[in-house]
Amino acid sequence: MQETPDVGELSPPQRTLMGPGPSPVHPRVLKAMSTPLVGHLDPSFVEIMDETQELLRYAFQTDNQWTIPVSGTGSAAMEAAIGNLVEPGDTFLAPTNGYFGDRMAEMARRAGGDVVRVGAPWGEPLDPDDVADACEEFDPDVFGFVHAETSTGAKQTNVPAITAAAHEHDALVVADTVTSLGGVELRVDDWNIDAAYSGPQKCLSCPPGASPLTLNDRAMDKVLDRDAPARSWYLDLSLLEGYWGDERAYHHTAPISNVYALREALRLVAEEGIEERWARHERVAGALKAGVEAMGLGLNPEPDYWLPSLNAVRVPDGVDDGAVIDYVLEHYDLEIASGLGDLEGDIFRIGCMGHGARPENVTLVLAALADAFDALGADVDGAAGMAAAREQLR
Predict the structure, then answer these.
(1) Architecture of domain 273-393
(2) CB-based contact 175:120 (threshold 8 Å)
(3) Residue 374 predicted with pLDDT over 90
(4) pLDDT value of position 329
(5) In degrees rounded to 5, what are phi and psi of residue 25?
(6) Which is it for the CA torsion 181, 186, 187, 193, positive or negative?
(7) DSSP character string of 6-75
């Protein structure tokens, strides 16, 4: 017989989360998670489902009827989109300009798709002409792109142009909006995106567990007209339609508390106003950008495709990025992250997302970085960084 585990009361540290996610959670969202459970088919929960869907439509800027929270993290919403829209034998055109473009490609392969690539260096957006050329060469059934690449800090520009290039070849367009929804300008309908997925723990500042997904009628028609069912029963959107559609028929037990949290996070988005929220992220992250540049660090992407919600700050020569990350965590309870893939060791990834996109967090990050660099012997002008940030925030 096993011994009784001797486990103490849960007491995680109080961190300031300024990495690539999760972001700090608003107290109202935490409070919503602690409210009483009801059944996932309870009439009161059905009303909450309706409200959550309507709030999601506002955040995505879409009228899509098929707009839902997927039970799971952002990767579940990603797999729901790709695994349902890519059938065995379909050609999937995936980008090469970041870690999460590679993940799109891998999910499409596992769905049975024939993956082809459209190229751009890590940290740069796709060129619409290159997308058009790739569509001409490969005639894809589905084209995927990352709107806000978390691994590089680069934003995809000219989205209407790349969606138009794909649609000229009748390809469906799937957008990864994990690090943009609720923080960076995103207009699903105006930009003619057929399907988009996201995660709640980035610019929505909500714990992971119920992840946004939207599909227009054209995308949903393909889901419902598949020759063979999707390989995942759990994420089969033709089955989930019965629960999130008009029937409200049982499919699985929804993560009720996570839906509560997402609903409250989306209420905060609506109260602030989506365009005002985009502007706040740009203003506060702009102060962070000005600060690190004045310190002599600089950002990885060019200014034209800088991503406010995820700042890829270059690591100074001769500095161990891991030592800096460890220092600010130990001395300031501040979380930032290192680079991924091709940029591992070259950048710090510093989020400025949702409830975390506040002036006091920017000044904390700059002060902590200046202290860390000083302790590690790096030549960085911390005072200039703080002054530049303050000037931006006036």
Answers:
(1) Alpha-Beta Complex (3.90)
(2) no
(3) yes
(4) 98
(5) -95, 135
(6) negative
(7) ----------EE-SSSPPPPPHHHHHHHTSPP--TT-HHHHHHHHHHHHHHHHHHT---SEEEEEEE-HH
CA-based Rg of the chain, rounded to a whole angstrom? 21
> Do the Cβ atoms of 198 and 177 come closer than 8 Å?
yes
Please compute, for residue 220, the number of CA atoms within 13 A of its CA located in the half-sphere on the CB side: 16
pTM over 0.90: yes
Break the chain into its structural domains and give their ranges: 27-271, 273-393
Residue 303 tokens, joined: 């200014």
Sorted by sequence, the CB contacts under 8 Å of residue 267 that are 6+ apart come out as 28, 55
Mean pLDDT taken over the chain: 97
CATH of domain 27-271: 3.40.640.10
3-state secondary structure of 180: coil
CB 309 within 8 A of CB 179: yes
What's the pLDDT tens digit per position in 38-79?
A: 999 999 999 999 999 999 999 999 999 999 999 999 999 999
Q: Is the pLDDT of residue 394 over 90?
A: no
5 preceded by cis ω (within 30°)? no
Residue 279 CA from chain centroid, whole number: 18
